[in-house]
Design a protein that fits this description.
Layout (H helix, E strand, L loop, with lengths): L2 H8 L3 E4 L1 H11 L1 E8 L6 H8 L5 H26 L19 H4 L3 E2 L4 H8 L13 H9 L23 H11 L7 H12 L6 H33 L6 H10 L3 H5 L9 E7 L4 H4 L1 E7 L3 H6 L1 H10 L5 E4 L29 E5 L22 H30 L6 E5 L2 H13 L7 E4 L19 E3 L13 E5 H4 L6 E2 L2 E2 L3 E4 L10 H14 L9 H21 L9 H21 L7 E5 L13 H10 L3 H11 L1 H9 L13
Parallel strand pairs: 1-6, 7-15, 8-11, 8-14, 9-10, 9-11, 14-15
Antiparallel strand pairs: 2-5, 3-4, 4-5, 12-13
Helix pairs in contact: 1-15, 2-19, 3-4, 3-11, 4-10, 6-10, 8-9, 9-10, 10-11, 16-17, 19-20, 21-22
Length: about 675
């Protein structure tokens, strides 16, 4: 029995605190992943299951062997071919992509049918003149007809069975040879034969090579889809036999609590994609990961007391969700698609302020005079940048602020210095400890295992007090500065003295990450795009409305698959979603300094917040977000957030007297 079922069956009413965080966790539960093959010894689930099967009776091993072996065969074939540069999953559809560094695209999520439109244009040039959305369904069926014979079944994109005879029977025969059980490597021979077979249809050698690569990878991933589905069924059958590997596969691929109630989200079906990692050291670290997403986390959260309760408990229940940040339309993980019933506006003037800062490299540094930018900087330079940032930030701002606050309000003479990871925090702390004006009081967030570690990356224990997450609330007893990851400090902590917050200022030293190649992040965006496409007041034609919502979700998936991973190069709508989620975290973070009616100051320190080379600076993106709000949304945002919203609008140069400001 799930926790949701237990609560809805046994409680007459349910109250959920931080309900937007609840929804965000539901999004995470809709995504699962499993390592199919890896160069690291015995880290892949099918390898473990293959070994475990030797503990079974002969009849059971015989039943299990085909599913395990075929997943291993296809996963190993795909990964090793990519490592040998015989196949590629990189985006090579345009001239700009030819110059990209391979590792910049290798970790993307790839669907078996994700590049079908490009492949259609190569194989059937007459489709090139058609608009991308208007390629006739017949051509998708003709492409599916080239797949090995076992795939002549429902086409998930067209919704129609692929019954056409293949245009090139010999092409299908060659592709069938690749995915059939075999005792030799056939890829080179098949590619050469496909070059001969397609020479008349695709005359340009470069385009023909691209088409063959797409055909082969599509075939291999479709085969892997089927084999993985069969393995999942077998693993489920053998969970009770004591096979740990079978239990692990079932756990990693099973539907979560959300998908068990609402198995289909806005896409209309579950999808599996593949990601290759570790190509920077492929001999040791290359791995192929399968990632599956399914379910509808947004509807699950919004309908907890309605549809979900009826399915799980047989009755409807009153469910109240509490949060300071559950309404923010572009924040795809946190925004609840449910009506707001009650709120209390933060009307205290200037209770939250957001400030820009530029910190430059100091004298003696090779980059002297340049602004210190952390996000977007090559990983090899981040350590140096953060150490320099910590040192100069302390000398120029933190030291003076602590002195000034200690004189006026000593109980609040504490600051938070925030980054994205424990490692980044350690580098910042080392920089602060090296500052010329440093006079003690430094605390550093660490994992429990690093509390007394001799790790040379960490400042010595006599330089910085190490605190685990359980000790953050008491940090004022240990020092004046806490260097901490944003994800650990944003919610749920009350750092107070008496009833008032002990923290006045928060310094954001690294722009929060944009992890849109993560399946959960992707799915939050995809499902929210579908929900936003539904008519606000309902529709007399529900079938048509759902079709349009599904199309919007698939369009968002296509956008995510082709977008660049770097924030500055992302599509604008994706930048807006990332920033909206960041603002939600910052409003929550400011709440740590607002306890007892005190004021809070957020200092944006990473120059990546301000650099406007690609119109991707925080100010520009905030203006774009604000411009998309309807008058009704602007009014509701002002009602809910008050001064917290004004702080960020003012940061972006949107003042209360500007037309369309939510206060007007």
């Amino acid at each position: 029995m799930t926790v949701a079922e237990f609560a809805l069956r046994t409680c007459h009413a349910v109250v959920i605190d931080e309900v937007d965080q609840f929804q965000s966790r539901a999004v995470d539960q809709c995504a699962s992943e499993i390592i199919l093959h890896s160069r690291r010894h015995w880290s892949a689930a099918p390898q473990e299951m293959d070994t475990d099967a030797k503990r079974l009776r002969i009849d059971d091993e015989h039943s299990l062997l085909p599913a395990v072996s075929h997943v291993r065969l296809m996963a190993e074939f795909l990964l090793l071919s990519i490592c040998k540069n015989a196949l590629s999953l990189h985006a090579t559809e345009d001239d700009r992509a030819q110059a990209r560094i391979p590792d910049q695209t290798s970790t993307r999520w790839h669907l078996a049918r994700g590049r079908d439109r490009t492949l259609l244009r190569l194989l059937w040039p007459e489709t090139a003149a058609a608009d991308e959305a208007d390629i006739p369904v017949e051509y998708f069926q003709r492409l599916n007809a080239l797949m090995p014979a076992r795939y002549q079944r429902l086409d998930p994109l067209s919704g129609q069975p692929s019954l056409l005879e293949p245009d090139w029977h010999e092409v299908r025969s060659e592709l069938s040879a690749l995915v059939a059980p075999r005792g030799e490597h056939l890829l080179d021979a098949v590619k050469l034969e496909l070059h001969r077979l397609l020479a008349d249809s695709v005359k340009d050698p470069h385009q023909r090579t691209q088409a063959i690569n797409l055909l082969v990878t599509r075939t291999a991933m479709i085969e892997l889809d089927e084999a993985l589905s069969a393995l999942q069924e077998k693993a489920h059958d053998y969970r009770s036999s004591g096979l740990r590997s079978a239990q692990k596969i079932s756990k990693d691929l099973q539907s979560g609590a959300v998908a068990s109630v609402l198995p289909l989200g806005m896409l209309g079906r579950a999808i599996t994609g593949y990601r290759v990692t570790g190509l920077d050291d492929k001999e040791k670290n290359a791995a192929l990961v399968a990632q599956t997403i399914a379910g509808d986390p947004h509807t699950f959260t919004a309908e907890l007391g309605g549809i979900v309760s009826l399915i799980l408990a047989g009755v409807e229940r009153p469910v109240m969700g509490l949060s300071a940040t559950a309404y923010f339309p572009q924040a795809v993980r946190e925004h609840l698609h449910a009506p707001v019933r009650w709120w209390m506006t933060d009307a205290q003037a200037k209770s939250i302020r957001a400030r820009k800062h530029r910190i430059d490299y100091g004298e003696g540094h090779p980059l002297f005079g340049e602004a210190i930018k952390v996000s977007g900087t090559h990983p090899s330079r981040k350590k140096d940048a953060l150490i320099e940032l910590g040192s100069n930030l302390y000398d120029q701002y933190i030291h003076r602020e602590l002195e000034r606050t200690a004189a006026k309000d000593p109980d609040r003479a504490h600051v938070l210095v925030v980054a994205n990871s424990y490692e980044q925090c350690a580098w910042l702390a080392r920089g602060i400890a090296r500052a010329g004006r440093y006079d003690g009081g430094l605390c550093l967030a660490v994992r429990a295992e690093d509390l007394h570690s001799a790790n040379p990356e960490l400042p010595r224990e006599n330089v910085a007090v190490r605190l685990t997450a359980e000790e953050f609330e008491d940090f004022p007893r240990h020092g004046k500065i806490l260097v901490v990851p944003l994800s650990l400090i944003a919610r749920g902590l009350n750092i107070v003295k008496g009833t008032r917050s002990a923290v006045r200022s928060v310094y954001l030293c690294v722009r929060p990450l944009a992890l849109l190649n993560d399946p959960a992040e992707m799915y939050g965006s995809i499902n929210a795009a579908g929900l936003r496409a539904l008519p606000a007041g309902g529709s007399p034609f529900p079938s048509q409305a759902l079709t349009e919502a599904r199309d919007a979700a698939w369009d968002r998936l296509a956008l995510l698959l082709r977008t660049a991973p770097q924030f500055t190069a992302m599509h604008k709508s994706l930048q807006e979603e990332v920033v909206a989620g960041m603002i939600v975290d910052l409003i929550q973070l400011a709440g740590r300094a607002r306890r007892g009616g005190t004021e809070a100051v957020l200092h944006m320190v990473d120059y990546a917040f301000h650099e406007d080379t690609w119109s991707a600076d925080l100010e520009t993106v905030l203006k774009r977000i604000h411009s998309q709000w309807t008058p009704q949304v602007r009014q509701r945002m002002n009602d809910l957030y008050g001064e917290a919203l004004n702080a960020f609008l003012s940061y972006a140069g949107i003042e209360p007297h500007d037309p369309g400001h939510p206060g007007n």
